From TrEMBL:
It comes from Pseudomonas fluorescens. Pfam families: AP_endonuc_2 (PF01261). SUPFAM superfamilies: Xylose isomerase-like. Residues 30-268 form the Xylose isomerase-like TIM barrel domain. Transmembrane segments: none annotated. PANTHER family: HYDROXYPYRUVATE ISOMERASE, XYLOSE ISOMERASE. This is Xylose isomerase-like TIM barrel domain-containing protein.
Length: 285
């Protein structure tokens, strides 16, 4: 597959609502994203609190926006069985929400170590057990689950899946063969450093498991490991090179911008942020 041009093709691109800092009501956020010309949106669950999903689905339809992904899962590993069951129940509900919004996938950030634990293998075992339960529910709702491995710096508190290789191993364990309902989201911020990145992108593509591509940039220096992601083109990631690999592996879905930037982009006017996202997608990605 040739690298798709993004020039004058914002209809191929998505804005993750976190990029705008969750400051505006979701209805206004959706309106701004649609007016800026983007074809997709990836909303967060917290944006939906107190909202009627059927009304939001109608707004999405009327604006022409599609939901490429619904963010994100409640962490699976927990210190007690009661807490584990509660986390699974919350994720089951989130899967139903994603299906009602007609999302193309539900993003799974699986969680790290339970409070007080130092047992990383046990946390990963809980993730496998929980995903097996959630996968059955996702199948019933005709929804895909996208495992998103995070940078190893988050292994303790956010994700005990740190590489595409680990995520794909889990996919193959729970869903042998090629993709049916379980795949991966490739977030460049989390995987650009991985020496096996190209190999694992090819592996994911061969199994048709690439469900998302998330773009931002790694700033040097980085002031905050969670909340100082860069706008595309401001950092050191080979964004176009990674997108080339992902699309060569068969990915034809939305190109999503997901930026957490407390002290920079989250302080700027949302219309300006969307304008810069559009310009950088077309010029740098």
């Amino acid at each position: 597959m040739t690298l798709r041009t993004l020039e004058n093709r914002l209809d191929l691109c998505s804005i993750n609502t976190a990029t705008l800092g969750h400051r505006l009501p979701i209805e206004q956020t959706l309106d701004l994203i649609a007016r800026a010309g983007f074809g997709y949106v990836a909303p967060w669950r917290k944006d939906m609190q107190g909202r009627t999903l059927s009304q939001l689905r109608r707004q999405l339809h009327d604006s022409g926006l599609k939901v490429n992904a619904y963010c994100r899962s409640t962490y699976i590993p927990q210190a007690t069985r009661q807490d584990f069951d509660a986390a699974i129940a919350d994720n089951l509900k989130a899967i139903e929400e994603a299906a009602e919004l007609q999302a193309q996938c539900f993003v799974m950030v699986v969680g790290g170590l339970p409070a007080g634990s130092r047992d990383l293998p046990a946390a990963r075992n809980q993730v496998a057990e929980g995903l097996a339960l959630l996968l059955e529910h996702a199948k019933q709702h005709h929804l895909s689950l996208a495992l998103e491995p995070l940078h190893p710096m988050y292994a303790a508190d956010r994700s005990c899946l740190s590489t595409l290789e680990q995520a794909l191993d889990l996919c193959e364990l729970l869903e042998p063969g090629n993709y049916q309902h379980l795949g991966v989201a490739v977030d460049v911020y989390h995987c650009w450093w991985d020496p096996k990145l190209h190999e694992q992108i090819q592996r994911a593509g061969a199994q048709h498991r690439i469900l998302g591509l998330h773009l931002s940039d790694w700033l040097v220096p980085t002031q905050d490991l969670l909340l100082d992601r860069g706008m595309m083109g401001d950092g050191v990631i080979d964004l176009r090179g990674i997108r080339q690999q992902v699309e060569a592996a068969g990915y034809e879905g939305a190109v999503e911008v997901e930026i957490f930037s407390r002290d920079n982009w989250w302080k700027r006017d949302e219309v300006e942020v969307l304008r810069v996202c559009a310009e950088r997608l077309q010029r740098c990605c």
